[in-house]
Amino acid sequence: MSDVVVPGVRQAEVLSALREGAPLVQCLTNVVVTNFTANALLAVGAAPVMVDVPEEAVELAPGASSVLINLGTPHEAQRQAMLGAAQAAERAGTPWILDPVGVGALTLRTEFARELLAHRPSVIRGNASEIRALAGQGAGGRGVDAIDAVESALPAAEALVGETGAIVAVSGPVDVVVDGASTTRVSGGSALLTRVTGGGCSLGAVIAAAVSAASDSGSDAALAGTVMAHALYAEASERAARAAAGPGSFAVAFLDELATVAPGDLARAERTTR
Questions:
Q1: For the segment 239-273, what is each residue's pLDDT rounded down to a tens digit?
Q2: Which of 22, 49, 182, 240 is 20 to 30 A away from residue 138, measured at CA?
Q3: CA separation (Å) from 132 to 86, 156, 158, 191?
């Protein structure tokens, strides 16, 4: 049986809510991508705050609209901040997103990511190798790069949904979003995203912003926000690729397109299927 196309109306609603609400997104992310991540959030209409000092991270998390925890460079002080922020977000009901960068490839971050799962992330976003390793079903990828196909990570994604209650998003040529009741595929996007530092990591931040915005306009906030973020990324990256001469100009054009994709563009697009 062929997949059923999911209308983009809900995606348009979430993008409108994001632009109108300007959610405050606390980012505990890696040093390689901090600037690009902040710019991506500004482009979509959110307000980034890059706080990863342990005492401040714990203080801020309950009042933030959402929290991103990205394990790209998890030095000791940042791990303290991440754990404290996850605990504070859990207590306050603040949605938080886990991006398990490099999990499986390195022991410290793998063990730490498993510790964070106990604090109930709203969304887990990673590539196929990271998701498989996080669920204990694989050994990880080649550094931060996946060596597994997206579809091979579906059992791991379903296991993580069952363990944590989170939405699990697996990035690849066709992104897959799993919520326990359904599997949504988001097609499209440019391969140039893989040639820009922060192309994947900033997606986690945009998901955080979108989930927060969606919570004001429906009960399916985590799922709707995650799907919208992937659809927005696909639309913006395809537009940017058409105007770019290579990775450098693509990075600038991509930020521009994140800012200019309109809700109606997502409503008309047919990127998502179930």
A1: 999 999 999 999 999 999 999 999 999 988 888 88
A2: 182
A3: 22, 5, 10, 22
> Percent of the chain beyond pLDDT 70?
93
How far from 27 is each of 93, 152, 213, 253, CA to CA, in Å?
17, 30, 16, 23
d(CA 270, CA 110): 36
Q: Which element (helix H / strand E) includes 221?
A: helix 221-243
The dotted CATH code for 9-269 is 3.40.1190.20
Sign of the CA dihedral 57, 61, 67, 71? positive
Phi, psi of 67 (to 5 degrees): -130, 135
Short-list 75, 129, 66, 76, CA closest to 98: 66
User: Is residue 142 scored above 80 in pLDDT?
Assistant: no
* Residue 19 structure tokens: 């632009």
Q: Are 28 and 69 in contact (CB under 8 A)?
A: yes
Can you name the residues that pair with 126 across neighbouring β-strands? 170
Burial class (CB in 10 A: 0-12, 13-18, 19+), 247: middle
Q: With beta carbons less than 8 A apart as the criterion, state whether 201 and 29 touch.
A: yes
DSSP 213: H
Say how far apart CA 251 and CA 214 lie, in whole Å: 27
